[in-house]
Design a protein that fits this description.
By secondary structure, the protein is an all-beta fold. 0% of the residues lie in helices and 40% in strands. The strands form 2 sheets. Strands 2, 4, 5, 8, 9 and 10 form a 6-stranded mixed sheet that branches.
Length: 127
């Protein structure tokens, strides 16, 4: 029973940067599949869409490879999402997700393949 704790969201002006954190005490992200997903704020009907994943070759419909970067500090049981040059369209609730093991690259963009989810952290980008 792995608990993911996402944090770091807030209000930021367009062009600014935010670093999100996802901590999972007792869980080692290294060697497992993990990623960041986002969902429009206040819209639970919308499916969470892949933003970035542990494998950079994964196709994510909303991947922002030139501005978002995933990093890992396994000693702290934490993964990060560094978001730079933020735009208003980046406004969303961001969720971290992890799988107990690895999933094939062709399925890594699918939210339903992940076993563990954080509660989400809201990032609001103002113009």
């Amino acid at each position: 029973d792995v608990q993911l704790q996402a944090s770091g969201g807030g209000l930021v002006q367009a062009g600014g940067s935010v670093r999100l954190s996802c901590r999972a005490p007792g869980f080692s992200f290294d060697g497992h599949s993990y990623g960041w997903f986002r969902q429009a704020p206040g819209n639970e009907r919308e499916r969470k869409s892949c933003t970035s994943a542990s494998d950079s070759s994964v196709f994510c419909p909303h991947a922002v490879k030139d501005r978002f970067t995933i990093s890992i500090d396994d000693a702290k049981n934490t993964v990060y999402l560094q978001m730079n040059s933020l735009k208003p369209e980046d406004t969303a609730v961001y969720y971290c997700a992890a799988r107990d093991g690895r999933v094939v690259v062709s399925a890594m963009h699918r939210a339903e393949v992940y076993d563990y989810w954080g509660q989400g952290t809201l990032v609001t980008v103002s113009s």
